[in-house]
## 1
Amino acid sequence: MTETSHGSWEEAVRWLREQPERADLVRDAYYDDPLIEAADRYRRSNEWEAVRAIIGTGPGEALDAGAGRGIASYALAKDGFSVTALEPDPSELVGGGAIRGLARDAALTIRVEERLSEQLPFAEATFDVIFARAVLHHISDLPAAMREFHRVLRPGGIFVATREHVVTTAADLPAFFDGHALHHRYGGENAHPLEIYQNAIRESGLMLERTIGSLDNPINYGPQSTAEIHRRIAGQLVPIPMLRPLATALLDLPGVGSTVRRLASRIDRRPGRHVSFVARKPK
């Protein structure tokens, strides 16, 4: 890996968008423009469909924590929620400025708060839903942030954290950093062992209802389709190429693929794999 001096997250994303060979990654990460088209593509994605199956639709008060460019804020607002976007970066490309521009272009009301998760400027029991996409692994004091999320969530409210980077042990971090497309540009990536996330959620007072493994659900592997994941699994499990289409067809059968994906998730040890969490505040 070529060493590069670290810059800002905005500079890193701007650099990525200037690499023609990374065009697919830019699109898959929703870093492309026009932002309103990227946000609408996200709302129509298999990933958001999986999120919607968990949180439902509005009305209700929703907090998009670590909102970035605002693609989830857009999806929440389009689905009928009153949305507050929490994003400390004021950037016009990847932060609060981008969210305000998106809300304006989409004629949506999205309140933007440029604050950190560890000190939320909201009263207790403000939100029905707290959604955090790829956010927890960036937070400096995760237990403090989780306590704040618990505080501002209404009794019975739902907390969903998706696409969190997981490592089996801290010794896997260098491999994760080396493989990440942007860490060498801004130095801000991170990942935790699974129990770090789970303990922080539980110790905040939230009830952890579900841990979603890396291959369990499109919430973690979108925008890849389930069919694409099945082809990948067949390619890894079946050494004879001519038999892989048959293995893929078997995985596509109802119940077969989901079972195999759950098992594959349990043995997945890739550094930085995605895992998601669903928790609820007791009534």
Note: DSSP finds 14 helices and seven strands in the chain.
## 2
Amino acid sequence: MGKLSVFLRPAPAGRTKEVWLDRFTDEEGKVVPIIVKCITPEENKRISQKFVKDDGSLDTAAYGDQMIVECMVEPDLKNAELCEYYGTMDPGDVPNRMFTIGEKQMIQDAIMEVNDITTASERLKKAKNS
């Protein structure tokens, strides 16, 4: 089969990463990890298509919130009890009510990392250093 066999590997959807936020502890005071996962490019496409504005641009804030919802394994932001606690039935609202700005950024960074997403500036910096 030659070199083709090297490329016969599916995307690593389901791979996970833990995020530790000191504010979320169990009954014993131990920090409980927030777990995010890798999704497939098809799932990402489905999510991003929901947030295309009339002018063709992407509503990045809404897209980012929905990515948190879709990639977060624990806690499940779609859980009705969790949504009710945060005063919404829309799981996309929960990240903005549950996390501080810094916590939300840490979660978004973990989602980008587990999904192998880098920004253009990060790629440029990496290229300059190699």
Note: The longest strand covers residues 16-19.
## 3
Amino acid sequence: MERDIAAKVGMAFEPFSFTIERGKIREFALAIGDGNSLYASPAAAREAGFRDVPIPPTFPTVIEMWAGADFDELIRVLELDPLKVLHGEQEYEYLQDICAGDELTGQSKVVDVVVKRGMSLITIETAFHNQQGEQVLVARSLIIERP
């Protein structure tokens, strides 16, 4: 029986929560070699106009790794062959600052599926809201399943 991957468009995953911690921000900045004092010093962050230590631009990777749907769940729900899956691209669209102390809730959904030359290109979008219910971030990820 042929799988209809396009039928997955609109499918949503369970919501998840993540609290932004200063220590995780500092660890991430060290791991990527970013010595900017904003990521380690609340005083430096406030001096720069932030309410607390802000997250580095690619920090949402940490959030999705620890709190979002994991690889096994994505493979199972999307009915993909794990041996043929590649991570195609990642993008983050910031709508507001995200800082230490923020409590984010995210929910991922499949927003697009394109099949080209036998490859399935699946776009998953995760909307993040802060503790006030304001949308602060949209993360988009492209999963490729090769033939």
Note: Strands lie at 16-19, 85-94, 103-116, 119-129, 135-145.
